[in-house]
């Protein structure tokens, strides 16, 4: 398998699939933090130890097939160009921390990109499983099975009272972060998100932007995840998160119904104005593109727009990010150059989709 696949294809194969409640829940993710005994944590380990850990995973897991996800390939951060690392971040396959601050970091990626095993990030191992739609239970099952498979080859740092030991105390215990990516445009338009976010935080969960901590909720996409990892089982953490997410799904659907009943023509006008901007603009920045894509996706979900597949919006949300634009251009672009290329790419992609949907 060629490494170029990871950098040149915007949508991972799992992302092109429909999942439960995928009109609102874009993806479900389980991430497990683990460390290996006999090595100091990444905050303190030597360069030699870091290289030994990468070598261990390269020799043990690289090029091996794992169930239906395909073969694992090892990508070393030191061998990637800055643009290539940015693309992996934009696809949610690695964290910004691994891309920017881990000179001895690496990543094992499955062929379908459903599984990502980050090496030498904040911990020795960050196991990540991604599923389309609202499938937290399924993602947890897959992550636990993968965790068991890895543990057949390495010994984890574990304490009988505390659980899994991690670099950051907030991850001690299960070492698990469960999260869902949600598209919540109606709750934003009805100005309910401002009160929902503090309420969710009080339940021991956190609401973040598209790329996690410190990022902006571009295109009305929010990441909801657990904060507590100690004192509860993985199953209980997932059930608590599922309960809150289900409430958010219900509230988003109610808000959409309210908008259709009370502001139908204004909402339809907003959707088609945004589509017009995407289909005709010659210059567009990432923030405006994300907002217009959010409006159009909402229009597809509500039945206003019938000739565009919802998956095209998934693709364009990633394809129009700075890393991908520069990857396609073959080099670094100034912000104004990216804005021109972004507009051209969106115009052409929408034309292609229209031709396909119309049988052309």
From TrEMBL:
This is Protein-arginine kinase. InterPro entries: Arg_Kinase, ATP-guanido_PTrfase, ATP-guanido_PTrfase_AS, ATP-guanido_PTrfase_cat, Gln_synth/guanido_kin_cat_dom. The keyword S-adenosyl-L-methionine does not apply. One of its GO terms (cellular component) is extracellular space. Its EC number is 2.7.14.1. One of its GO terms (biological process) is phosphocreatine biosynthetic process. Appears to be allosterically activated by the binding of pArg-containing polypeptides to the pArg-binding pocket localized in the C-terminal domain of McsB. Signal peptide: none annotated.
């Amino acid at each position: 398998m060629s490494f170029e696949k990871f950098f040149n294809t915007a949508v991972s194969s799992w992302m092109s699939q429909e999942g439960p409640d995928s009109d609102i829940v874009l993806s479900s993710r389980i991430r497990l933090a683990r460390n290996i005994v006999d090595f100091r944590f990444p905050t303190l380990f030597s360069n030699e130890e870091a290289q030994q850990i990468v070598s261990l995973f390269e020799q043990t897991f690289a090029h091996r097939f794992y169930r239906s996800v395909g073969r694992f390939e090892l990508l070393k951060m030191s061998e990637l160009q800055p643009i290539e690392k940015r693309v992996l971040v934009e696809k949610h396959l690695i964290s910004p921390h691994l891309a920017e601050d881990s000179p001895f970091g690496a990543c094992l990626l499955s062929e379908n990109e459903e599984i990502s095993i980050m090496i030498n990030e904040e911990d020795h191992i960050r196991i990540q499983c991604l599923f389309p739609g609202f499938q937290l239970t399924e993602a947890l099952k897959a992550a636990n099975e993968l965790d068991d498979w890895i543990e057949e080859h390495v010994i984890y740092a574990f304490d009988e009272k505390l659980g899994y030991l991690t670099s950051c105390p907030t991850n001690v215990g299960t070492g698990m972060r469960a999260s869902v990516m949600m598209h919540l445009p109606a709750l934003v338009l009805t100005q309910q998100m401002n009160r929902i976010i503090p309420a969710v935080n009080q339940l021991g969960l956190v609401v973040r932007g598209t790329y996690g901590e410190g990022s902006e909720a571009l295109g009305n996409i929010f990441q909801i995840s657990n904060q507590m990892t100690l004192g509860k089982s993985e199953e209980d953490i997932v059930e608590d998160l599922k309960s809150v997410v289900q409430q958010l799904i219900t509230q988003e659907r109610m808000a959409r119904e309210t908008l259709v009943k009370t502001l139908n023509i204004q909402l339809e006008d907003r959707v088609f104005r945004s589509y017009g901007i995407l289909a005709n603009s010659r210059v567009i920045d990432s923030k405006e593109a994300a907002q217009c894509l959010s409006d159009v996706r909402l229009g597809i979900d509500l039945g206003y727009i019938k000739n565009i597949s919802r998956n095209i919006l998934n693709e364009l949300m990633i394809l129009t990010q700075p890393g991908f634009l520069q990857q396609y251009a073959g080099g670094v672009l100034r912000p104004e150059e990216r804005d021109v290329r972004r507009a051209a790419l969106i115009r052409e992609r929408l034309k292609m989709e229209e031709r396909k949907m119309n049988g052309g």
